[in-house]
Amino acid sequence: MAAKKQTYEENIEQIDEILEKLENEELSLDDSIEEYEKAIKLIKDSEKLLEIGEGKVLKVLEKNGKIEVEDLD
Questions:
Q1: Cα gap 59→53, rounded to integer Å
Q2: Sign of the Cα pseudo-torsion (42, 4, 10, 28, in order)
Q3: Tens of pLDDT along 19-72?
Q4: Which of 32-65 are b and which e, b meaning 16 or more Cβ less than 10 Å from the residue's Cβ?
Q5: CA angle 30-35-39, nearest 5°?
Q6: pTM over 0.90
């Protein structure tokens, strides 16, 4: 049975927990590296989820006949 895919929000929550653990706990070097690797994987998964979400939004905009992309800077 495949593991349930986490949502973007769940990924961010887990990343926050890892960061807190790295900042506040005295972990061995090996444990710190392991936690860092978990965080990097979660960040990459989150980036993919954002790209998927962006694609869905653009499809909805295309169906409505308008595509207006603005920079939020």
A1: 10
A2: negative
A3: 999 999 899 999 999 999 999 999 999 999 999 888 887 777 777 666 666 554
A4: eeebeeebeebeebbeebeeeeeeeeeeeeeeee
A5: 145
A6: no
